[in-house]
Target: OLC1v1010640C1
Amino acid sequence: MGKNTKRPRNDDSSSTSSSKLQPSKKPHSSSVSSSRQTKDINTHHRSSQHSEQKSKLSTFPSYLEVPGLPPKVKLSCEIIATTPSVTVERILEDRGISVSQEDVEGVLKLSYGFPGPAVKFFRWADYQLRDEHSPYAWNLVIDILGKDGQFDAMWDAIKSMRKEELLSLSNFSSVFGSYVIANRVLEAIMTFEVMDQYGFPRDIVAFNSLLSPICREGKTQEAKEFVDTVKGRIRFDADTYAILFEGRENEKNVVGARDTFSEMVVDVGWDPGNLPAYDSYLTTLLKAIEDCSRKNDAKNAGLIWEVMLKKDDFLPDTEMYNLMIGLNCIVKEFDVAGKLLNEMIYHGVFPNSETYNLYFYYLLKSRKLKEASSIFSEMMKNEFVPNHSNCSSAVRNFVDGGDPYTAIKVWKCMIENYNFDLEETGNLLVLSLRGMNRLPEALKYAEDMIECRIKLTPPTLSKLKQSLVQKGKLAVYDELLRKWKA
Model:
């Protein structure tokens, strides 16, 4: 190994900490009562929590998944992954490996799945680097120990870093995350409370770094309870609320998200530039409205909608309007649906084809023919074509409702925009016009169908013949039949 200092062979290899990390039972708090409380918490469900942490370690990347690693980094990772902790240092020495600070960082990043051997590697490299590990390498060790539930050794590493004046806020962020993953939120909070003993203020940056893993791990309610206890001590910022928003959204807690938003507006105001919080809030509202839609709960959906619209910077999009319009149509609140449609443009949102077709469909289904006729005219004016199904339904409903004029308008729209499945609707229109004693119009649209190669069925021809014979116009029928046969 050249001039590199070798680790003494008779050194205790059973410890998983660095040569600077002395075994210690002292808690990170100077309070004796906190020490006892911490020990009690540490022993509670230790086995199950450690098992859960082991499963978390498996989600970290392995050296086998990273192509193009430097040979000595790959070899070191392989030794760590295949060698018992007690012999790692001896194997590394025997292989004559020489490492730099960057090599150590690279190896540790890919060795989370083997925490014991990884820390032994760190200890071995300490001699080579003459006690000059990088701050990042120290942080990786702290994170590996914490994620493996080796909290005593983790705090030994922190104390060593403090002696070397290498400690940073990122180290505490790692500790927060490790405790939260281990379901030891209280200890994460206790760590925050004693940060000042390590030279770090309990400011909003540190607070947010604690809040983030608590919310990320699905413990937003615990985070909110802690937020309430420190509200008088720490001035929250937009990031604080963005973190809470994300937690509420992930947990699908719409009421909580709404309350968080209201608190934010009062506390720090609303900055439209805070896009993460904005997107999270809109996502939560959208899911809430979708849930109300599935339950046909227009009342609660309306309450959520009103909360959103009261905020000047919260502008719903077309998709959200479509959900609200559809929901109110389902429960037959057509006045509300119509109001929503009309107010869209005042919020800078415009209806699309889905908006109109949705509203048109439910109006037809409920036989609101006057309103349906008006919406059809608006659709044509705005160049939105009813879908094929709506066209067929509209022709049937309008002729059944005694409105042949609108039925004919829809039919003309239909044959201009669709070239399939027109036979049934066309024959229905012709027969309906005949039944309304509008024989000339029935004949005209029958001839149009033949000209457009839309099949006029024999029963329709037969009915037209009966009416024409009664009117003494057999020659007109013969001409129609000739065209039909051509």
Observations:
- The first helix runs from residue 32 to 43.
